[in-house]
Write a structure and sequence with these properties.
With 664 residues, the chain is α/β, with parallel strands linked by helices. The chain has 26 helices and 28 strands. The longest helix has 15 residues. The protein starts with a strand and ends with a helix.
């Protein structure tokens, strides 16, 4: 008895196409019936072999089949003509792969890749939002689905049965081996043989349905496909989670989401509409699915409003991956002085509030460090910390950096527009360093953001709400600038809600050794340090503050020998300190004396006045014994030398060594 071969599809076009192809492959003498499962009574499916165009139908129709019916999922490949056309595509940019459903779209992409084509393919099917930058598309006779922005189209035609599918059919038929071989050989000449089919990209034993379910369930949005009658024929796990329902297949979408019916049946894409679902609100997008210009169903995308807000926060937080993070905490601010402990205590209190903070202090005191520590101690720590140096950007760039701009807002603007720092810092902190350098015009715009928590991008009329904490810093007197008309009074008072003053290093000298040792560890140096070094540090005024101390530590960590000595200090630093020489009344002749005494100290020799005279003469310095006695007395009064009695001689002191070192 001849077996009846059935072909099942979800629309007439697919059914007719595969019917005609199989009829041409097998030839006369075989009984083939094809079905559109969306239109027939499934109880009428009486076949021996059933080819399924999509595995989605298997569970729907299995109960209507005879137990003996052999189900064969259709696996696809390309015709030789399609393959030759694919080889002609020499495009290095992104390319759409356009098809009428998510399963066949990804199956086609997988097949192209398995053939070895090096193309950057992006899936596009009903319900996917177009990307304007993609200008090239490949499609399998679904030209009408291609976005209007595409400029170049490659139509490679329908995919056909692969050899394995035809073999599965022939093995179920009562054919002579020679007849079966003849059919296969004839068919193989018309198609591309793919040794690695679609399923092999995931697992050799995984069918197309499993692949599709895997792909669709990776999508965080709810994806539902319905037929023309509104019955659900595909649903992903995200949809079940969003709708808090599991038994959705085969149900009417009107029964599931009554408020959605007004959007279905449209001939165009409906984007981001708000619908009610029980006690929640969903954002819904729908798009009709067409095959050969015939509408066969709808694709529905669901998003939960609460989830969207969570994802928005996540996206904004992800911006921190580009470096928008605060690096330090309050505990990591180095210092044990009473003054710095008080500032750290104020910082902790300010962090828990949401008010603006104005940090003042000299250059190099660590104002940005304190700003970052405040951010990390606040409930905004999970979100971005962005810093902008108001003095570093030209006036014409400050506005676009802060507020962003739309596509084509001005000459030289990025084609895709740009998100400004306020939007990037949403829920986080924006630090304005050198705030005094902002122009009065930008001060006015910043004031409005502080008052309204709203921004408008350049070239846009849309108001965007932002939730950003502002911390500003300056080394100038804003109050004085405001009196001079160079800074807005209203902005000054808006910023100065919580004033924080970072003390200069000269007012917290007891922190110098702690900071210096910390910096040496940072530069991985464990060199010994001369005792006199910190005495010099304590006397120095540190105009560059902590930044200058860090620079000195870095220099000594790498440039000094095995021991960090006074002589190893940078020349510029020693020159700055040696300017005190005039106050110390150390002239050239006295320095020569100190140099000789240092040499004698190192060689453990005693030095009297006469030996000093001879040593000075050897260096070209000619003085009388009376003059040398006077200079030694003056050096003794400054505690630079010790003058012994009798033959004890004269010795240089630690203070003398220090002055000599700084004068070299």
């Amino acid at each position: 008895m001849n077996k009846i071969i059935g072909i099942g599809a979800l629309n007439d076009n697919t059914r007719q196409f595969y019917h005609e192809v199989l009829d041409g492959v097998l030839g006369e003498g075989f009984t083939i019936a094809s079905f559109n499962f969306n239109k027939i009574d499934r109880s009428a499916i009486d076949v021996d072999i059933l080819l399924m165009s999509t595995p989605l139908m298997i569970n729907l129709v299995r109960k209507h089949l005879k137990p003996s019916t052999k189900i064969i999922p259709i696996r696809r490949t390309f015709t030789n003509k399609s393959f030759e056309l694919l080889k002609m595509i020499d495009v290095k940019e992104r390319i759409y792969l356009v098809n009428n459903g998510i399963d066949v779209t990804f199956e086609t992409i997988s097949s192209i890749y398995s053939l070895g084509f090096d193309l950057e393919l992006y899936p596009f099917y009903p319900g996917v939002e177009p990307i304007d930058e993609i200008k090239v598309a490949i499609t399998t006779n679904e030209v009408h689905l291609i976005p209007e922005t595409v400029e170049t189209i490659y139509n490679i035609g329908h995919m056909v049965y692969d050899v394995d599918t035809i073999l599965d059919v022939l093995n179920e038929l009562s054919l002579e081996p020679s007849e079966r071989e003849e059919i296969i050989q004839r068919y193989q000449k018309t198609i591309v043989t793919v040794d690695r089919g679609v399923s092999s990209l995931i697992d050799d034993n995984v069918y197309v349905q499993q692949e599709k379910n895997t792909i669709v369930n990776l999508i965080n949005e709810g994806v539902i496909e319905t037929d023309n009658e509104g019955h659900v024929i595909m649903v992903n796990e995200a949809s079940k989670k969003i709708l808090s329902a599991t038994d959705l297949m085969g149900k009417s979408i009107d029964e599931i989401i009554p408020d959605i019916s007004r959007f279905l049946g449209n001939a165009r894409y409906i984007s981001d509409q708000l619908v009610k679902y029980h006690h929640e609100k969903l954002i819904v997008s729908t798009k009709p699915i067409y095959v050969f210009n015939q509408k066969v169903g709808d694709m529905i995308i669901l998003r939960n409003v609460t989830e969207i807000k969570r994802l928005e926060d996540m996206v904004r937080k992800e911006l921190s991956l580009s470096g928008h993070v605060a690096k330090y905490t309050i505990d990591e601010i180095i210092g044990e002085s009473k003054l710095i402990r008080r500032v750290k205590s104020l910082t902790e209190k300010m962090a828990v509030a949401q008010s603006t903070i104005l940090i003042t202090g000299e250059s190099g005191t660590g104002k940005e460090l304190f700003a970052g520590a405040i951010h990390n101690a606040s409930d905004r720590a999970k979100f971005p910390f962005l810093a902008i140096n108001c003095a570093a950007l030209p006036e014409n760039l400050v506005e676009s950096e802060l507020f962003g701009y739309e596509t084509g807002a001005f000459t030289g603007a990025k084609k895709e527009g740009k998100i400004g720092l306020f939007e990037q810092a949403h829920h986080g902190t924006l630090f304005f360093d050198e705030i005094a350098e902002l122009s009065l015009g930008m001060q006015s715009r910043l004031l409005r953001v502080l008052q309204e928590s709203e921004i408008i991008r350049i070239g846009s009329t849309k108001i965007r709400r932002v939730d950003v904490r502002i911390i500003a810093a300056t080394n100038r007197d804003l109050h004085a600038l405001a009196r001079e008309g160079k800074f807005r009074w209203d902005l000054y008072y808006r910023l100065n809600v919580f004033p924080l003053t970072v003390p200069p290093l000269r007012e917290r000298r007891e922190d110098i050794p702690v900071l210096f040792h910390h910096f040496l560890r940072e530069f991985k140096s464990d060199k010994a340090i001369d005792e006199g070094l910190f005495e010099i540090f304590q006397e120095y005024t540190w105009p560059g503050n902590v930044r200058e101390l860090r620079n000195i530590a870095e220099y000594l960590a790498f440039m000094s020998e095995e021991r960090i000595t006074l002589e190893g200090l940078p020349y510029t630093f020693r020159r700055a300190i040696s300017q005190r020489g005039e106050d110390l009344h150390v002239g050239e002749e006295k320095l020569k004396i100190l140099t000789i005494l240092k040499e004698k100290l190192e060689s453990r020799e005693k030095v009297g006045r006469m030996s000093l005279l001879r040593a000075l003469e050897a260096r070209g310095v000619f003085v009388t014994e009376r003059e040398i006695r006077r200079m030694l007395e003056e050096l003794r009064e400054e505690n630079y030398v010790q003058v012994g009695v009798g033959k004890q001689g004269t010795r240089i002191t630690q203070e003398g060594l220090k002055v000599l070192s700084l004068s070299l």
